[in-house]
Design goal:
2 domains, mainly alpha, single chain, 88% helix
Length: 109
């Protein structure tokens, strides 16, 4: 039992509690917004897109909250993702240029 108390008193435990509370607040706010949407959006398709957008924003906020709380422990992942992104962009260089050319050609039509 003492180990559990010591964990929650450490910086990692405090961060974990903060993240859990923040995620609960985000879930509550997103749920309230999704319940309010039908009152202001009458069209079914628009209501569906609005709910999906709100879900996306909620997931993004949760990920952003976790990343901020544990940002000092994510430096290795950040470097890896940066190098991987640069490698993928370099490998797909011709494909990206072809798509950009396609868009430029058909934009004027």
């Amino acid at each position: 039992m003492n180990e559990i108390i010591e964990f929650f008193q450490s910086s990692s435990g405090v961060k974990l509690i903060t993240v859990v509370v923040a995620i609960l607040i985000i879930i509550i706010v997103i749920s309230v917004i999704k319940r309010v949407i039908p009152k202001y959006v009458s069209e079914t398709g628009s209501r569906y897109r609005a709910r999906k957008f709100i879900n996306f924003i909620g997931y993004a906020l949760v990920i952003f909250t976790i990343m901020i709380a544990f940002s000092n422990q994510l430096t290795g992942i950040t470097v890896f993702l940066g190098v991987a992104g640069a490698g993928i962009a370099f490998a797909l260089q011709e494909v990206i240029a072809s798509i950009a050319g396609f868009i430029a050609i058909f934009e004027e039509v």
